[in-house]
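hi!! sorry for the late reply, been swamped w classes. u asked for the two structures so here they r. pasted raw, havent cleaned anything up. first the sequence of the first protein and right below it the tokens
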Amino acid sequence: MKRVFVCFIIMLPLLAAAQNGISKKQSRYRLDALKRLEQTYSYIGGQHSGDLVVVRKGDLFGVVDLEGRTVIPLQYDWVAPALNGERFMLFSDTLMGIADRSGRMVVPMEYDAELYAELNVSDPFRYGLIVMSKGGKYGVLDTAGRTVVPMVYDEWLWLVDSNLMILQDYDHQIRQHYETLMQLDGDTVIPTQRIINWWDENLFGVQNDKKLWGICDRSGRVVVACQYDHIDYPHNGLAAVKKDGRTGVIDSRGREVIPVAENRFGGKTPYPQTRNLFVLEKDGRVGAVDSLGNTVIPFEYDFNPEGSASHLVFVRGDTAYFLFDNTGRLVCTYDNFYSYSDCDASEPQLLFAVSRNGLWGLVDTAWREVAPCIYKGADFVDDRHWLMSLDEGTSCLIDEQGQVLFKGPYSYAYPFCDGIWRVGIYDRASNKYILGDVDAYGQTTLSRKELKEMERILTECAKKEKELPVETTVREADETIHTDTILAVGTAIDEEEIDEVFVIVENQPEFPGGDSALHMFICMNLSYPDQARDNGLEGVVIVRFVVKKDGTIGNVKLVRDIGGGCGQAVVEMVKSMPRWKPATQSGKPVNFEFTLPVKFQLTDDVPDGTREERCLFQYSGGK
């Protein structure tokens, strides 16, 4: 087994590494440097540029180079890289500033930190500009810290592109937002409306005070007068509309492709999935019709997830996915389909996981099979990569070309820096992580001993999953035990006044680094309380909190506790979280209520009569 194992670890996917522009020697140097830094700092920031690293020691963050030399001192509450490490956003108490990669302050620490939400964390300098606030006044700076829009606006700004911005005002008497589309020099393009939604680079949906919708272009010209009760976001150049209970479809010029007056769909709103087919619901089932209302795909499916410009997907039950082309012809079927809904719209997801006969593969946005359905499992890594499970305690990372970048005994992976991935596995028996880094050449910071141990854990986990029945219930602790230590259900900790909180949004909030990083943060910052372990307490603790529109955590509320200090331990862990990427609605950051279940479970007695603890982590989005 040792010989086979070594072979797949040292396979060299040279093409993938070369595409990153990093030689094998350069990559090895970076791996060795990261390994040294991990021995000094408690945190090494991911998804950064290759030669600068965000680090933490104690509670303070800073930036060092790969040799460990200080670039930005460790004196900040949080440091977030931007522009691929060309800029770093620095946060300290209520203030923020921006430094460049030499550590020079481009923007002094005198701006409001609460504006983190408006920065669009994944790409705060998307147009070479950044929204900032100072003393509660909003404006715009460029990457050099120069003022583009003075800090004179009382309400916050949202950048549409490098030329246009939306000013959002709020009428406190009627509790209603109003929006104005403006040029960066302050000239009005679209006068104040109730809502202005940016649809694409040329079109904006507007809603007036009478709650009627229309369309304007980026010059402010009215394309469609405000006359519709509702206009969907355009899809493939078409948008469904509703007026006086009647529905139809218009194109980007406002022409009625399907006249509203005819009401041929029985009041149901047709969704223009392609240029030829429109998805409808009829008697609780979905299908597709053409522009004349003729049924092309029968109404026998449960729902229709998002498709592409040339394909439609329909689902029947929980285990059957049907793929149709834009003529309504059935192309293929799958048992299951897995996408990651939180992808940034600026970098859309390129790969989707599908399964057939219990095995997983990958398809691209055109539904071409990139990787055949031969894998035991599939885990999302980023927009272009998935980690696929193999036999013998092994997984492999596959890119959008179907190339295997590396193999190894890893249960998860996420992009760390140029051409390097952070990989690891969680040992439930010991409640510990084994972590390391791997490059596109297959080189790793993990020792052979660590790799063998990871392989053992992954193999044992796979065996247990086959042997153990699927758990459908959770055993709750006896409520009479230590009730004095259990916080009352629904108890709020440090509850504060927060503006409107959403529970359903277009884009949910995201922990820095994604789900894998959130999983790792929880398991590394949460331990089984002694009192709970000694009394054999097990069960699920549920905490609900608000990810505010500046990314900070607020209104932490313990919804369910099992006693023994478990609930308080989860609360303290949540309160110690760094800033999240906030939820967005209509392209703007909003407050979002997030629900987090954490499962505490003890293993069965081991041969020597002792019990080992393990904390199993599960979570779901806001409910």
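now the second protein. again sequence first, tokens right under
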Amino acid sequence: MANGFVRRFLPVLDWLPRYRSADAPGDLIAGAVVAVMLVPQGMAYAMLAGLPPQIGLYASIVPLILYGAFGSSRTLSVAPVAIVSLMVASTLGGLAEAGTPAYVAGALVLAGLSGVILIAMGVARMGVLTAFLSHSVISGFTSAAALVIGLSQLKHLLGIDIPRSSLFVDVAAAAIPRLAETNFATAVIGLGAVGLLLLMRKPLAQMLSHLGVAQSVIAPVTKTGPLVVVILGTLAVWLFGLDRAAGVGIVGVIPGGLPPLGLPAFDPDMMVELAPAALLIAIVGFLESVSVAKALASKRRQKIDANQELVALGMANLGAAFSSGYPVTGGFSRSVVNFTAGANTPLAAIVTALLIGATVLLLTPLFHFLPRAVLAAVIMVAVASLIDIRTFRHAWAYNKADAVALAATFLAVLAAGIEPGIIFGIALSLALFLWRTSRPHFAVVGRVGKTEHFRNIKRHEVHTCPHVLAIRVDESLYFANASYLEDHLLKEVADNERIEHVVLICSAVNFIDASALETLETVITELRDAGVTLHFAEVKGPVTDRLARTNFLEHLKPGTIYLSTHEAMVALGCV
């Protein structure tokens, strides 16, 4: 039993001893392909976070190894991502100047705090709590964040000076007057990189598909776009001296060598100040990660343990804090590439980490002339897919309350920033849930023909009983809807003087809280005073068990609880 617990907590002890040589080619190829993709991506996301480019590479080494040891997903690729990078920039922007030692120290604190929070949630088995962040809120947040990210990269893409801000309106207001100051050479490189990246997505994939190339080859090839534009952009600047002759911004000197390992200096005051942001970063990062992991695992009939994922992501973030990185999580595009390139086990992620380590150890001088405009192009194209219009259309057609939550979160993030926008979206989503469940649907039902089935009198041709009101409540009963239930039942009885019995059908009731129970007792008394007896039908076992622990069943008499609506109608003389 202890051995099973250790293997569940440290999955590497489960898959590594049983590793098959047949899995090695896929793992090695996938690890190499993702490394090719992650080098420019890591530097680009570090730049988005306001950090030196090498920090993005540092955050792509130790975290990947730790996730490979602790993660339950076989194909998830953990490293910097755009959304978390923007949240880091938004959080630290008011704390220190981007790129300064204080700013970098803040990023380490965020990684450490996020790691501790995620591990604590995993140990407490709180993975289910993240479900309270609805898909509508996440969609609104990511769509708005994608616009903020894209706009924030205009300064690098066009070579203009725009003050850093996480507010869309502020960045737009500062950018528009400065468009005339665009650096021509920078814009050509940046927009050319955007065009080439877009070309290497669907158009190239379609062309290769028409040529009969296997899908397992197409996906990795089309994802090498970032490396291609990095190479071309770097060569162009180096060959023509565009950094000196045309003022093209470049990455410059990147310190070589592996990331320094050690305990970061945690300032208690800074930790208290950054704790709320670290919590949001942890939750948002986990949601993005676990959704990707589950989607990929389902394709191979594998399982994902949400609580173990919390622990694994927590360890990865602690690893980032102790290796000069910043907060990380599972990335969608990288993980899909890892999956389609043939990754079979977490060894693929470890291969990626080793190759990134070799890059920072030996190849950083090659990135000296890398144009910042190219990294901006990588970011903009990567986040473009996060703008999710389809979900809003679907929500509007199906449930306008969800559409309102999505739109409100979207606007709140644009107007107020990342953290306030998410908090507002969560609060609005919960408020809409309370409002929706506080007005449950009631259906007066009648018998369908001579069957034992009872359906809504407004939807079906049914037979009703004059002296019995059979009414179904389609919601669990709790404090928010208890008074509404009382008002509705009393109104139905007041509108029909022939009613002698009310049968409350509880087939959709999964829970009755203490407030609703008190209200039901009040309704029983009020109906009894009016000469009407209240009965219950189709009450679920767990609900009945709870009612049996109180004196409610005694209070209900002469009413009773019937097994089915048919049984109630027979007992009350309606059949």
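hope this helps!! also noticed smth abt the second:
The beta strands are 78-79, 329-330, 442-447, 454-456, 468-473, 501-505, 533-537, 561-562.
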